[in-house]
Q: What sequence folds into this?
C-alpha cells in the first residue's frame, strides 16, 4: 500500500468530515453559521493556530517534534514587544523589531537543531529542555507580567482587511503557499521527507542531513515568530504564558492533517483542511453554546476516531503483506 | 559490559552532582541541612516521585503517557466528592482515587493497543479528552471541604524535634515509601517487570515470544493510572484543595525528572534508582534556589539548563559509544 | 524412521492467491533439512504454518510425532517442541545473555528466579559447548555469539525442531564452522534442524535433505548427495545458468583510483592497489577481513589513519562522504534496507537523492523536467521493472530494489563505483541481471570495485581479485589464469 495513496485518502476523509460538519451546522444554526461574523471569527483564530501547527508539522516530517513552539513564540514575542515599546515608532524601529524577533528565532532554532543533529539528543527531550529553558527566560525577561500597548504599526496587522479579507488570514495563506512550494517543489523539501523516513540512508546518499535538520528547526522557529507577531497584534500584549493550549492542538492538527507521526509523510494541503475543520467545529460549537472545554475533549476524541477509521481501512488492505 | 557500566555511571554521576550541590547548599544556607527543610522537601516532592514511578514503568515498556495530570485531578476530584460527609479512612480514599485512576489508565492501554499509532499521540488525545471533560463538568470550581478525618491526616511515629515542630511518617512519606518499594519490587523481582524491560528492548521479539502484549500494556498504563490516583490523594492531603487546572504542564516536569534519571525515551533502559536520583536532583536544585534567595524568576531557567545539560551529556556519550556516522 | 512432523495437503490462500499449493513434506528427527527456493516461493509462509502463526486452508493434515493436529496454534507448536530462530534473532538487546536464554521462565513464574535462569542458561550453553558471559548485555555481543544465544534459548524450551532462517548470512567462515558443529550436536540429540538459506554451497554442504519450493509448490525433496549447485539452481528457477569467466578488458584504461599504504587502526592495514577505468576489481575474503571498513574510508564515511588515496592522479582527503560523492565516488552499500535506500520513499526520490544539489533551478526549486529525464533514463538503462516512479521502493522485489540502489549512484556519473555485496537478498534469476549491469558499467569505462562474500560471484564477474584477510591484502589473482577452487583455498586459508 503506497504511502502516497494513504495521503490521498487522508484528504478524502477530511473533505468528507468537513462536508459533514458544514451540513450539520447549516442544518442546526444556518443563519449564524453562514454569517460574516462567524467567518470573521474563524478567520481571526485560524492564522495563529495555523502557523503554529505548520511550525510543528515541519519538524514531525523529519521524524522529530518541536515541543518548544509556544515557548519560542513567546520568547520572540517578548523580545519584539520590548523593542517596540522602547523605541519611537519609526521605520527603522519597525525593522529593528522584525530583526530582533528573527534573530531570536534563528538562535533558538539553531540551538535546537544543533542538539538534535549534532549532539544526537532525541527531539522530544531536546525541545522539552529548550522549552523549559525558554519558559524560564521568558519569565525572567518579563518578570511574569505582560508587555503591552504596542505602537500602531503592530496593531494595524490585525485590523487591516485587504479586499475584505483580514490581513492575518492573508499572512497565513502566504505562509501556506511558501511552505507548500518548499516542501513539494524544492530539493530541501525532498530531503526533509527522505530524512523523515530514514536519516542514515539519506546521509549515505551524500546529503548533508545535519545541515538540513538544523534548517528545519530554524524554519520552525521562524514560523513561531510570525505567529508571535500575529498574536501581539491581536492581543496588544506579549506574555510568557500565552498560548499554552496551542501546543497540543498543533500536534493534533498536524496528525489530523495526515502528517505521519513517525515522519516522512504529510502534506500542507491536508493540514490546512484539518485546520479548517477544527476551526469550523470550534466556532460552530461555540455558537451553539457548547462549552469550549467540551470542544477540547471533542478534539481529542476526533483525533482518536480519525485514527481508528484510517486504521480500519488500511488494515484490510495491509492484510496480504 | 560497556552498556551496563554506562547505566551505572549515569547514576553515579547524578549521585555525585547531588552531593556536590547539597554540599554547596549546606555551606551557603544554614537552613538546608535541617530536619525541617528536608522533611518539607520530602513531603512536597512525594507526589512528583509517585508519578515518576508510574511514568518510569511506562517509558521502560517503550511507551509514554502524558495524560496523567488529568487522571490525577479527575480521580482526586471524584474521590473528594464521594467522601464528603462520610466517616471513612484513607484506605477508602486511596481505593476510590486509585481505582478511578486505574480505570482511566486501562482506557489508555486499550487505545494504545488497538490504534496503531505512537502512544504520545494517543495520550495527547486522552489528555485533551480527560481535561476537557473535567473542566466542563467541574466548571473549574475548586473543592475546599474535606471530612475531618482527611484533614487530620496520618502521622506515624510522631515525635517533636528540638525545633518544636512535629515530625513523623506523614501520609505523603508513607505513600512514597510504599510506592517506591512496590515499583522497585515489580521491576526487579517479578517476571512481569523483566518482561516489561524485554518489551521495551524489542517489541517485535516480545510478541514473537508469545508475551501477552495487550496484557502488559494494560498493566503498565493501568499502573500509571493507579499512581495518578494515589498521587491525587497525596496532593489533596497536602494542600487540602482540588484545583482542576493545577497540574497543567506537569506532565513535562515529571518526564524531565524521569529522563534526568537516565531512563531512555525509546524503552528498555533505565533504573528506578536513576529515576529517584533525578527527582532528588530537581528537588535539591529548586530548594537550593529558594534557600539562597535566588529570585523565583530564575528557577525555571536553572531547571532548564540542568535538563539541557544532562540530556546533552547522555546523548553525547551514547554517540561516542555507537560511533555514529551521521 | 518415524517422522517428527508430517505435513500433508498444505495449502494457503491469501485473497484468492495461492501462496502454497498442496505441500506434502515430512521432517525427520536428527536430520538437517533445507528449504530452498527463490524469494516469494512460499518458504516463510510454510515456516509460519509449521510454527502455528498461520492456519492452512481446510483439508490439511498435520501430525507431530504421530499425533494429528486439527488446529496448530503458536502455543501448541511451542509445546510440541517447535522453535523458530528468525533472521533478526528476536533477542532483547537490553537484557543479559542469561535473561535472554531463560526468558520463557517468565511465563511460568510470577517472581523472577535469577538462580534458576542462570542455571538453565548455563546448562544449555554447556550442552552445545558454548562459552559466553552470562551477564553480558546481548547488544554488546557480535552476531555469531548472539546466534548462539538464540539457539540456547530455543534449547531451553526443549526444542525438538529448530527452524533457522538464513542463519549464516552474517557469519565468517570460522563462525559458520562453529555453527555447523552446534548443528552437529543438535543432530546427535535427535533434534531436527530446518534451514532456510540462499547460499547454495552451504545448503549442499550442511543438509541431509533439500526441499525445493517454486511458486508455492513443492518441486521435490532430494538427498543432498544427489544434487549439485547447478541442478539446484535449475530446480529453484527452472532456468539453466551457466557461468563463464569474464573476457579480459580489451584496453586497460587510465588508473582511476590508486590507494597507497592505507591504514586504519584495527580495521585495515597497509592497503595498496590500483583500479583502472573499465576494470572490475573484486575484493573477497572472510567476514571481518576489513573489506567494508576499507570501503567506508574510500567513500569518506571514515578517515584512514595514514596512507594516500589518489583519484585520477590527484590526492584526495574526504572530510565526509559528501566530498567523495562530489569527487565522483559512489557506494552501493551492503544493507540496502537500512543504508542503501530509503525504503518508504518513492523510487523517483531515491534515485535523485544523490544529485539533488545538481537539480536546482535559480530559485532553489527542483528542476522537475531534468529529474524526470534522469530517472527515466536510468530505469531504462537498468531495466528496472516498476509500475510508477512514485511508488515506494518497498513495493519492489529484492532484485529490482537493488537496481534502484545502483541507479541512484549512476545518477552522479561516477568515476568509481563501489558495490558492497551487490546481490545479497537477490535471488538467482535476478543475480544474473545484476551481473550483466555491472559488466555493462565497466564497458562504459566506470571503475568498479566489488566486495563480495561469494567466491563464485567474485570469480565469474571480475577481471581481477584481491583477497583480504584480517585487514590486509594477502593475494591477487586473475580469474582467467586460475580456478575457483584455488581461489577458495586462498580465501579460506
A:
Amino acid at each position: 500500500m503506497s504511502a502516497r495513496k494513504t495521503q490521498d485518502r487522508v484528504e478524502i476523509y477530511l473533505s468528507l468530515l468537513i462536508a459533514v460538519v458544514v451540513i450539520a451546522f447549516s442544518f442546526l444554526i444556518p443563519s449564524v453559521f453562514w454569517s460574516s461574523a462567524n467567518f470573521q471569527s474563524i478567520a481571526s483564530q485560524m492564522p495563529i493556530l495555523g502557523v503554529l501547527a505548520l511550525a510543528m508539522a515541519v519538524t514531525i516530517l523529519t521524524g522529530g517534534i518541536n515541543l518548544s513552539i509556544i515557548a519560542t513564540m513567546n520568547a520572540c514575542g517578548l523580545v519584539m514587544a520590548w523593542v517596540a515599546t522602547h523605541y519611537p515608532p519609526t521605520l527603522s524601529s519597525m525593522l529593528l523589531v522584525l530583526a530582533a524577533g528573527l534573530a531570536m528565532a534563528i538562535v533558538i532554532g539553531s540551538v535546537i537543531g544543533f542538539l538534535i543533529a549534532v549532539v544526537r539528543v532525541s527531539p522530544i527531550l531536546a525541545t522539552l529542555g529548550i522549552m523549559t529553558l525558554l519558559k524560564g527566560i521568558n519569565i525572567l525577561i518579563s518578570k511574569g507580567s505582560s508587555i503591552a500597548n504596542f505602537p500602531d504599526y503592530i496593531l494595524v496587522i490585525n485590523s487591516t482587511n485587504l479586499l475584505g479579507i483580514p490581513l492575518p488570514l492573508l499572512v497565513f495563506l502566504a505562509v501556506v503557499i511558501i511552505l507548500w512550494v518548499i516542501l513539494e517543489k524544492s530539493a530541501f523539501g525532498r530531503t526533509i521527507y527522505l530524512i523523515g523516513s530514514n536519516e542514515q540512508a539519506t546521509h549515505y546518499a551524500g546529503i548533508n542531513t545535519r545541515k538540513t535538520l538544523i534548517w528545519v528547526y530554524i524554519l520552525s522557529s521562524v514560523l513561531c515568530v510570525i505567529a508571535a507577531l500575529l498574536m501581539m497584534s491581536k492581543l496588544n500584549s506579549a506574555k510568557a504564558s500565552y498560548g499554552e493550549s496551542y501546543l497540543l492542538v498543533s500536534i493534533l492538527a498536524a496528525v489530523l492533517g495526515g502528517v505521519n507521526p513517525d515522519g516522512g509523510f504529510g502534506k500542507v494541503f491536508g493540514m490546512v483542511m484539518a485546520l479548517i475543520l477544527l476551526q469550523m467545529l470550534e466556532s460552530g460549537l461555540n455558537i451553539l453554546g457548547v462549552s469550549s472545554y467540551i470542544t477540547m475533549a471533542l478534539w481529542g476524541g476526533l483525533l482518536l476516531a480519525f485514527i481508528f477509521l484510517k486504521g480500519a481501512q488500511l488494515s484490510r488492505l495491509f492484510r496480504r503483506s | 559490559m560497556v552498556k551496563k557500566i554506562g547505566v551505572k555511571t549515569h547514576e553515579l554521576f547524578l549521585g555525585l552532582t547531588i552531593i556536590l550541590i547539597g554540599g554547596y547548599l549546606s555551606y551557603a544556607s544554614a537552613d538546608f541541612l535541617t530536619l525541617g527543610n528536608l522533611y518539607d522537601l520530602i513531603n512536597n516532592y512525594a507526589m512528583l516521585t509517585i508519578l515518576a514511578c508510574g511514568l518510569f514503568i511506562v517509558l521502560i515498556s517503550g511507551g509514554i503517557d502524558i495524560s496523567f495530570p488529568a487522571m490525577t485531578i479527575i480521580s482526586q476530584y471524584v474521590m473528594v466528592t464521594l467522601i464528603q460527609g462520610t466517616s471513612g479512612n484513607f484506605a477508602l480514599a486511596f481505593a476510590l482515587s486509585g481505582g478511578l485512576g486505574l480505570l482511566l489508565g486501562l482506557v489508555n492501554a486499550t487505545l494504545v493497543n488497538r490504534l496503531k499509532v505512537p502512544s504520545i499521540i494517543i495520550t495527547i488525545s486522552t489528555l485533551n479528552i480527560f481535561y476537557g471533560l473535567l473542566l466542563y463538568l467541574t466548571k473549574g470550581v475548586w473543592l475546599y471541604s474535606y471530612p475531618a478525618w482527611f484533614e487530620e491526616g496520618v502521622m506515624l511515629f510522631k515525635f517533636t524535634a528540638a525545633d518544636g515542630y512535629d515530625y513523623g511518617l506523614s501520609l505523603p512519606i508513607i505513600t512514597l515509601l510504599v510506592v517506591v518499594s512496590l515499583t522497585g519490587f515489580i521491576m526487579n523481582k517479578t517476571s512481569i517487570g523483566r518482561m516489561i524491560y524485554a518489551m521495551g528492548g524489542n517489541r517485535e521479539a516480545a510478541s514473537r515470544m508469545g508475551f501477552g502484549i495487550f496484557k502488559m500494556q494494560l498493566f503498565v498504563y493501568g499502573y500509571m493510572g493507579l499512581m495518578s490516583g494515589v498521587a491525587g490523594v497525596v496532593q489533596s492531603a497536602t494542600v487540602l484543595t482540588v484545583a482542576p487546572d493545577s497540574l497543567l504542564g506537569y506532565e513535562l516536569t515529571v518526564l524531565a525528572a524521569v529522563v534526568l534519571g537516565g531512563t531512555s525515551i525509546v524503552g528498555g533502559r533505565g533504573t528506578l534508582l536513576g529515576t529517584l536520583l533525578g527527582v532528588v536532583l530537581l528537588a535539591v536544585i529548586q530548594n537550593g534556589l529558594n534557600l539562597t534567595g535566588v529570585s523565583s524568576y530564575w528557577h525555571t531557567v536553572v531547571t532548564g539548563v540542568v535538563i539541557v545539560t544532562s540530556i546533552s551529556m547522555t546523548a553525547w556519550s551514547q554517540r561516542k559509544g555507537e560511533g555514529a556516522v551521521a | 524412521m518415524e517422522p517428527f512432523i508430517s505435513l500433508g495437503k498444505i495449502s494457503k490462500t491469501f485473497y484468492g492467491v495461492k501462496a502454497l499449493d498442496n505441500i506434502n513434506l515430512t521432517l525427520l528427527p536428527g536430520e538437517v533439512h533445507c528449504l530452498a527456493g527463490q524469494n516469494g516461493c512460499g518458504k516463510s509462509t510454510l515456516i509460519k504454518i509449521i510454527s502455528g502463526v498461520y492456519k492452512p486452508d481446510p483439508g490439511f493434515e498435520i501430525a507431530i510425532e504421530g499425533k494429528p493436529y486439527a488446529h496448530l496454534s503458536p502455543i501448541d507448536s511451542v509445546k510440541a517442541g517447535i522453535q523458530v530462530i528468525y533472521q533478526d534473532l528476536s533477542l532483547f538487546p537490553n537484557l543479559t545473555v542469561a535473561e535472554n536464554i531463560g526468558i520463557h521462565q517468565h511465563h511460568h513464574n510470577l517472581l523472577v528466579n535469577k538462580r534458576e535462569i542462570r542455571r538453565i542458561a548455563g546448562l544449555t550453553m554447556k550442552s552445545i559447548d558454548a562459552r559466553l558471559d552470562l551477564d553480558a548485555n546481548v547488544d554488546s555481543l557480535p552476531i555469531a555469539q548472539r546466534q548462539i544465544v538464540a539457539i540456547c534459548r530455543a534449547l531451553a524450551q526443549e526444542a525438538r525442531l529448530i527452524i533457522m532462517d538464513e542463519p549464516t548470512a552474517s557469519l565468517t567462515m570460522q563462525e559458520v564452522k562453529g555453527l555447523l558443529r552446534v548443528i552437529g550436536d543438535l543432530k546427535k540429540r535427535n533434534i531436527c534442524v530446518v534451514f532456510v538459506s540462499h547460499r547454495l554451497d552451504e545448503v549442499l554442504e550442511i543438509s541431509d535433505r533439500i526441499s525445493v519450493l517454486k511458486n508455492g509448490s513443492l518441486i521435490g525433496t532430494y538427498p543432498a548427495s544427489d544434487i549439485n549447485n547447478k541442478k539446484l539452481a535449475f530446480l529453484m528457477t527452472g532456468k539453466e545458468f551457466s557461468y563463464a569467466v569474464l573476457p579480459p578488458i580489451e584496453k586497460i584504461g587510465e588508473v582511476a583510483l590508486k590507494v597507497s599504504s592505507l591504514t586504519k587502526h584495527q580495521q585495515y592495514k597497509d592497503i595498496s592497489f590500483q583500479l583502472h577505468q573499465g576494470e572490475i576489481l573484486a575484493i573477497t575474503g572472510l567476514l571481518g577481513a576489513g573489506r567494508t571498513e576499507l570501503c567506508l574510508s574510500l567513500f569518506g564515511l571514515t578517515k584512514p589513519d595514514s596512507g594516500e588515496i589518489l583519484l585520477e592522479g590527484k590526492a584526495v582527503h574526504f572530510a565526509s562522504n559528501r566530498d567523495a560523492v562530489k569527487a565522483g565516488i559512489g557506494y552501493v552499500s551492503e544493507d540496502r534496507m537500512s543504508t542503501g535506500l530509503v525504503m518508504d520513499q518513492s523510487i523517483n526520490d531515491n534515485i535523485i537523492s544523490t544529485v539533488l544539489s545538481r537539480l536546482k533551478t535559480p530559485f532553489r526549486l527542483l528542476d522537475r523536467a531534468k529529474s524526470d529525464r534522469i530517472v527515466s533514463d536510468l530505469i531504462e538503462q537498468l531495466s528496472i521493472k516498476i509500475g510508477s516512479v512514485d511508488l515506494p521502493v518497498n513495493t519492489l522485489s529484492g532484485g529490482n530494489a537493488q537496481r534502484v540502489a545502483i541507479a541512484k549512484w549512476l545518477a552522479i556519473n561516477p568515476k568509481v563505483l563501489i558495490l558492497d555485496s551487490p546481490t545479497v537478498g537477490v535471488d538467482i534469476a535476478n543475480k544474473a541481471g545484476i551481473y550483466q549491469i555491472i559488466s555493462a558499467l565497466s564497458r562504459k569505462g566506470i571503475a568498479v570495485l566489488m566486495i563480495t562474500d561469494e567466491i563464485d560471484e567474485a570469480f565469474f564477474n571480475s577481471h581481477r581479485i584481491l583477497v583480504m584477510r584480517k585487514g590486509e591484502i594477502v593475494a591477487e589473482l586473475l580469474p582467467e589464469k586460475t580456478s575457483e577452487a584455488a581461489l577458495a583455498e586462498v580465501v579460506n586459508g
Observations:
- The first strand of chain C starts at residue 5 and ends at 14.
- The radius of gyration of chain C is 25 Å.
